[in-house]
Amino acid sequence: MRFALVVTLACGIGTLAGAETELSLLALGDTGKPRSWPAALTPQYRVAEAMAREDRRAPVEAIVFLGDNFYPHGVSRRSLKRRVRENLAGPYCHFLTLTRRGRRALRDSCALAPAETHPVPIIAVLGNHDVGRGQGASLQREGIARFIGNWLMPDGAHSYELGAGVSLVAYDSTAIDEGMPATALSRALAESKGPWRILAAHHPIADPGAGWHADDTQPVLEAIQASGKTVHLFLGGHQHCLQALRAPGAALHVVSGGGGAGVRPIAATPAERLFAEARYGFARVDVSPDALEVTLLGLSGRFDRTAEPRARFRVTPDGAVERLDPLSAPPAVGPAAARARARR
Question: pTM of this prediction?
Fold first, then answer.
């Protein structure tokens, strides 16, 4: 049942491909703190509501979770249902397709009518806080999918072909951090169709400040070089803030770690930093035939539930990066994409 659903969603994305179309996605990491406050007050739920509002303003075709989905030590068999209820079903109900088991187990947390939701593929990677228990990794890959039918998580690395010429290559940077070779990443990149290539992982490969691991970065850079492919955008979390940097490995590096698990001060870096704010929020990626545009959106007030553009960048196929006015209009939706979105 789950695989049929995923194929259906993927086909829906595929219809957007073409010279005059675009594709959009949202990305965020460092989300899953155990809930202690009322839901309406927690940063994760406020960021999630802002994401739903952004999707209603301009629909997206995918969501990317950049790791540390469940603090502080991942999930266990005993805690799985409870943590899925409070850290996925509750905040992100707008984007979910629940399985039959999920509808029974999560109905108290996710009870929106189908007409009020917009399910899209949810592509997630593991973070260092997700693997603290023996079964944490496999439970996230396989256990969550028994409740949420549009949940996808690679085992190692995988290229998700999203349509509109976009290959999203998601990989497990935590395994590389623990000494595993990056051969799966190199293979996934080499097999990706492109021409647009986006990498998604928990650990940044550009130095965003305190907490960066140089030893983990080198195998990834070598894997990218071995693949022979150009990476236009890297999406990572780990640092609890919003950042954009220029560094080897990708034309543009974005840290989108403001998903709700706390905000940390911006630390100094020798890298070329284009933007940084210690703020809750998320990233939006809009792909048109001529460019890939990335907008970093942040929450303003302490209890705000809307996000405003804080920075925007344009990446061209040759890897040139231009900073845009964050309040400028995003790429126009092409006719084919508009027709596909209207059918939903």
Answer: 0.90
